[in-house]
Protein: ABC transporter permease
Organism: Rhizocola hellebori
Amino acid sequence: MLSLASLKARWASLFGSFVALLLGVIMLTMTGLLLTSAKPQMPQRFSAAAIVVQSPDPLAPADSFLPRRPWSPSQVERLVAELSAISGVVAAIPDTPVYAQPLVDGKPTAATEGNSWPAAALAGHPLTAGVAPTRDDEVVMPGRVPGERVTILTAAGPHDYTVTGTAHGIYFFKPFAGVRAIGLLTHGKVDLARVERAVNGEGKVLTGADRAALESPADARTRWIGLQVLTAMAALTGFVAIFLVASTFSFSVLQRTRELGLLRVIGATPGRLRRMMFGEATLIGLLAGALGVALGALAAPLLGSLLVHAGFEPPSFTVRFTFWPMACAFLAGLMVALTGVVLASRRAASVAPLAALRAADAQRRPMTRSRWVFGLLAIAFSALLGLATATADALSIPTLAGGTVMALIAGIALLSPALVPPLARILLSPFASGPLGLLVRQSAFTAARRTSATAAPVMLAVAFTVLVTGMVQTGAEAYATRREAQIPGTAALIPDGTPGLTNAAVSAGATSVLPTTVWHGDIPLTALGLSAQRAPDRMVVRGSLAQQRGWTVGSVVPLTVASGHMVRLTVGEIADAAPADILVSRDSARSFDPDALTSVVYLHAEEVISPTPGAKMVSAAEYAALADAQEDRLVWMFTLVLVGMAGGFTIIAVANTLLMAAVARRRELTALSRLGATARQLIQLVCLETTFVVALGALLGIATALPGLLAIRAGLSQQIGHPVTLIVSWPALAAVVSACLVSALPASLLPSASASRARHRGGRQSR
């Protein structure tokens, strides 16, 4: 009852905690629903196949996104024959997707995949006009008229085809190699046990929802990126919500010192005060949790569509509503509220009865022993994480850097009351000679904890903005510089609206790279076909792979290639710094994988190439910047999402905290007004105080983020082998500081207007 009565009486001071928690539950609900929805989706080209037989799983890490080993042509022939003979199976059709991109007015269209005509039945794509293709130069495709001539980009280059019919997809007459799936068209019931016996361990039998395992490696990688985004959003949401709820409750206790002291005077025990604080947090958690879950469920489809548009999820992604993510978000909101109030409840229980008699707000001990101990421990932990960041690999750097800054935020937030006086002297030195500057400085001195609490949300916003944007831009610049130094030429031919360069785009004398995948057993290995490699039956092997497999120079290794055939290559050299598992000649790579596309062609100044459709020429510097442009775009979108989340949370918290502080000081402002301060002077005082708080938070935020960025720079320098320039996104920093100031000033000015009105009322009454 005491908690409910206190909540009713002080709802305005706890509104910020409610809003922070509400936003946190909304984000947790959305991310939870999206995470449970981010599951593999069956490709539509198998929608009519009730049963699909898939080649064996690759023996590789889940995040390698390498394709499965294809069956050999003889295996495909045997499987098709035995599966077709099973009762209830109408047809067993190999799936053979290939690169196919039609040209319209010389420009590539969005479609990038074709198949052999029999595979149209697996997708349920009947002819809508015309007839099926019967020759290698014929095609069935949508949006064209039978008899029309079209140009289609294939891995070999642009080829002219005659349209013989129309259907929902691009289908050729010629069957292709590299079969990894066989779809079964069925009629009636099929004995799955017979299908398993026919497969005989050479693959997996998929039915129903299990057919989602047919998802392409590209879609799986996109989904994995989305998973990282959603996980980071959930982690950031939890940290920011706990930090803001804890700081708001702590600030609330600071404002309620006299009230809590009065409760102690009338008999309330420390345990009763602690239970009251937990009761308030529970009520806020229940209210914010219920409303947040409802709003999060409504907003989840919108966030899902944004992730698809940004490239964080494949186009087939849809949000599925399940109960347990929403229940977990509700419980998480309640736990965040209770966690955030732990320190505040300890502070409330330590208030002495004599605090009710204090007439001044000066804090005799802004720094308690626990603040010193836990603050220094957090900074020490941050230093350890920073050292780990400086020596970490590329995948671990973002996680360790984030942990470094989070620990440093917690440490500086705890120690900030001790930092307020010296920083106040520095920041307010231009105003030291005037009465307003003196008032603001002395207020910061006598209420250091209040000042640090109001600056905490600004510190959080600035720290995350500087860290995340700086990390992304520093990393992008470092990798671009390394790429430019490694480019063996002065210019490059790169894809233009296509996933890669066709064989026709590659000059015979230029330096080019043709990526593919080969398999040693079921282990996928990355392979590069290089124009500099000449021997067709030899390969260069990465040192770590040779050591792992026991290969030495002269070893003859059997490998399965993308066409499904078996080849034997001799290890000609072992290179520790090889850019792929194995290096072969370009001609060998082309024979291994007829559908492979070249990623780039390096050119020298004397070489002149007329780009074919789907290719363009750029300088070496331009290529270095564009090489990972798509991935950099995704990372930058990810950055904006995280910064927007942290900024949105903290801007609301800034406004709420300063409003709470200003409301609590209304009596002071009224006293100043009645002592003769004009309305203009009150506004100037409040503006100066607010600007000082925002500047203090920004300074602490920059100081918090810089160690993390320096550790990132050290780690990147170690990785790429040359100095890295530290980049701070000053526009992003200016934007977030400006947003904090814009939200803080109106919240702080409202009570000054009230104080000014009180002065006028007092003046009229005295007359």
About this structure: The longest strand covers residues 157-166. The mean pLDDT is 83.
